[in-house]
Specification:
The complex is a heterodimer of chains A (101) and B (644).
Chain A (H helix, E strand, L loop, with lengths): L4 H21 L3 H26 L2 H31 L14
Chain B lengths: L6 H49 L7 E11 L2 E9 L1 H24 L6 H20 L3 H19 L6 H32 L4 H6 L4 H18 L8 H4 L5 H10 L4 H8 L1 H5 L2 H22 L5 H21 L3 H28 L17 H15 L5 H16 L1 H26 L17 H12 L10 H16 L13 H10 L10 H26 L11 H4 L4 H46 L7 H24 L1
Antiparallel strand pairs in B: 1-2
Classes of the chains: A mainly alpha (101), B mainly alpha (644).
Chain lengths: 101, 644
């Protein structure tokens, strides 16, 4: 049995769905954050798979950009989360609705 | 030597620039001397140019000096150029000559004023503008000067702007003049449309359709009415007396107010093609002469009398212009500049000597205290009253003769106005220089409005200066010179034969065929002259009979005349109040309709924002769900399209 590109894409789709559903159903900010990372990496996996399958280096190159941006986003995001933890006991997303219109 | 013409306006301009930068450092009285020197330089330049003009043969005395191209766009070509011909140089000579004397007088009169140097800045700028006005070779250059003198007039009328009356008077003069300026502007548009050029020379050579000529002449006359204070736009000139007296003498008697007469004379060929317009000019002039003279009979302010007298004399000049006697108009303009400047400066000397007293009912017997002022004022009085051989007689007689040929009715109005002139001037001389010393009873300074002046007057009294005093030599010297000119000025144009009509011969090439030459018999001339003298003497004796013994004759000062036929109230009712009503209505439209529309747009944005804000819950999960749903919907659409 050969492990073709479909396997990888299926895995990536599964990871993305887990991330998306997690983001929608969980209330803990840290977990929601991890879900976002999961979705990003699922996309990375599809990029790499297609790059390999189509023999196009572009997909792999794009992954680096995503990683760099994700790393930067983690820095900012964790900074925000730490700031929230300093001011409040927990980190429930629903408590943070000061931007309500 | 004609090239010296450019120096004529350049001297006052240099004086203006110098005083603008260094004026305050030069201070009192050096700033005044600089300004006077600039005017002296301009006068000498005018004399040199005049001498150069005399070297040229009579009909070639027309020299255009282009300085630079000012506007060159499409068919419109306007050069900044000066026109040197007998008319412009006559104007330039008396503007600079009388101007220099009044500058000299101001050195003394304005002494001690906190804005001393600024006064001379304005005065020099005025002289520059006036010279541009008379020397401009096309309508636009002249208009530049025309507006310049208007602006300077405004600045100088409200020179003592701390007084509310002065500030208001300046505003009134400016607004009234704008009405006339519209006429000048429209005339320029019309001239450019029909002639294709704004040069006076082109305009004067053009043969215009009768309607066009009438329209241009009447529009120019509207401008002249504003500047030269004719019915119905004369109302600003009496109020302009709020300015310092040298300003009244220079701008509101001798020079600026004659600009309208000059403009009509400059465009004489247009008026010659429009007999209807000429009749309008003559009638308005005659009526102005009469109406203003009647008002002058009942005024108590020494300067107001002279102001109405100026309006009346300007009316005489327009009567001459309308009768086609341009030389007579210019002749009267020159002699009037001499004697009216003299009378104003004399009045200023009296006001100065009496510590800012202007009410003639509080004067009297001043000839003993101010001998030079009194003697020169009396010369001016005889000149304006039309007593031979003083200057006013010859010029006014010239005008009345021309008016007689136009229409005996106009002549009759003129002779009544002349009689009234003799009357009110005699009344003034008697009230000021003869009779009881009424100023001894009147407390000084109680009419003075602001505290500073009252303090000034009080200081003078404390120093024992309560007695009226003669003015310093810088003020009396111009009086003496002007008195001499007012006495002999008639010699410019004596009606004893061709060789005596110096001014007529000099100006004749300018007007050419526009000049109406009436062949009057010697008997007619003599009869009219005798009647004019009889009228003048009659007015003089009537005033002597009424005012010599008593200064208090209310029956001779009807209230309607004291209030100048309620002209201000009429203007208020006819123009100001409807104007204000229109403005109020416009303000209403602005605040209701226009502001309402603007406010409505804002309210709409606010209301819709209020409705839409509920979409912003502030919960991250809601946003995430919406993003996911949106993505799913987009994906579904893409998939559906691909398959479908």
């Amino acid at each position: 049995m050969t492990v073709g590109v479909e396997w990888y894409l299926t895995l990536a789709a599964a990871l993305f769905t887990i991330g998306a559903v997690g983001l929608l159903v969980r209330r803990n900010v840290l977990v929601m954050f991890m879900c976002v990372e999961l979705m990003l990496n699922a996309v990375n996996l599809t990029f790499v798979s297609f790059a390999r399958d189509l023999n196009d280096i572009g997909g792999q190159a794009l992954v680096f950009f995503v990683m760099v941006v994700a790393a930067a986003e983690v820095v900012v995001g964790l900074g925000v989360i730490v700031a929230i933890f300093r001011r409040r006991a927990g980190a429930t997303a629903d408590d943070l609705h000061v931007l309500k219109g | 030597m004609l090239d010296a013409a450019v120096l004529i306006p350049l001297f006052p301009l240099a004086g203006f620039a110098t005083l603008l930068v260094f004026g305050r450092r030069l201070g009192d009285p050096l700033a005044g001397w600089v300004a006077t020197a600039a005017m002296g330089g301009a006068f000498i330049s005018a004399c040199v140019t005049f001498a150069g003009l005399l070297e040229v043969e009579g009909h070639d005395r027309h020299d255009v000096q282009t300085l630079f191209t000012w506007i060159h766009t499409g068919p419109l070509d306007v050069d900044a150029s000066l026109l040197v011909d007998p008319l412009s140089i006559t104007m330039a000579l008396f503007v600079t000559g009388v101007g220099a004397l009044i500058h000299l007088y101001s050195v003394g009169y304005m002494h001690g004023d906190p804005r001393y140097s600024k006064f001379f800045v304005y005065l020099n700028l005025f002289a520059f503008s006036m010279l541009i006005l008379v020397l401009g070779s096309n309508m636009l250059v002249s208009f530049l000067g025309w507006e310049g003198v208007g602006a300077c007039s405004y600045l100088l009328i409200s020179f003592w702007f701390e007084r509310k009356t002065a500030a208001t008077a300046g505003k009134k003069a400016f607004v009234t003049n704008r009405i006339g300026d519209v006429g000048f502007l429209l005339a320029m548009f019309l001239v450019f449309q029909t002639v294709g050029s704004l040069d006076f020379a082109d305009l004067n050579e053009a043969s215009l359709a009768a309607g066009t000529a009438t329209a241009i002449a009447l529009l120019l006359f509207l401008g002249a009415c504003g500047k030269s204070a004719q019915l119905p736009l004369y109302v600003w000139l009496p109020d302009a007396m709020e300015g310092p007296t040298p300003v009244s003498a220079l701008i509101h008697a001798a020079t600026m107010v004659t600009a309208g007469v000059y403009l009509m004379a400059r465009t004489a060929p247009v008026l010659a093609q429009a007999p209807d317009a000429a009749t309008v000019v003559a009638v308005v002039g005659a009526l102005t002469a009469l109406v203003a003279a009647t008002i002058a009979c009942a005024q108590n302010d020494i300067k107001k009398v002279l102001a109405y007298s100026t309006i009346s004399q300007l009316g005489f000049m327009f009567l001459a212009v309308g009768s086609g006697a341009y030389v007579a108009a210019i002749f009267h303009m020159v002699t009037h500049a001499f004697f009216k400047a003299l009378l104003f400066l004399g009045a200023g000397s009296v006001i100065h000597g009496l510590h800012h007293e202007q009410d003639m009912k509080r004067m009297g017997g001043l000839r003993k205290f101010m001998p030079v002022t009194a003697a020169t004022f009396i010369v001016g009085w005889l000149a304006i009253a039309g007593i031979p051989p003083f200057a006013g007689f010859w010029s006014k007689d010239d005008i009345l003769l021309a008016a007689f040929h136009k229409s005996p009715v106009l002549w009759a109005i003129g002779i009544v106005a002349a009689l009234l002139t003799a009357y009110y001037m005699t009344r003034q001389v008697i009230l000021v220089f003869f009779g009881d010393e009424r100023w001894r009873n009147a407390p000084h300074g109680d009419h003075v409005e602001d505290a500073e002046e009252a303090q000034h007057a009080a200081d003078e009294i404390a120093r024992g200066a309560q007695e009226p005093h003669e003015s310093p030599w810088v003020m009396t010297a111009p009086l003496v010179v002007l008195a001499a000119l007012a006495a002999i000025g008639g010699g410019l144009n004596l009606p004893f034969g061709h060789q005596f009509e110096v001014l007529h011969n000099f100006l004749h090439p300018v007007f050419g065929e526009a000049l109406v030459d009436n062949d009057s018999s010697g008997v007619l001339i003599l009869t009219l002259a005798v009647l004019a003298v009889a009228g003048a003497v009659g007015g003089l004796l009537a005033a002597r009979g009424s005012w010599w013994t008593s200064a208090d004759r209310p029956s001779l000062e009807p209230r309607i005349l004291q209030r100048a036929y309620a002209a201000d109230e009429i203007v208020d009712a006819v123009v100001v109040r409807p104007g204000r009503a229109v403005a109020d209505a416009a303000a209403m439209v602005d605040s209701r309709a226009i502001d309402g529309a603007v406010d409505g747009v804002a309210a709409l944005a606010q209301a819709s924002g209020q409705r839409l804000r509920v979409a912003q819950t502030g919960y991250v999960r809601n946003y995430a769900l919406l993003i996911a749903a949106g993505t799913a919907a987009t994906l579904a659409w893409v998939v559906f399209r691909t398959i479908g």
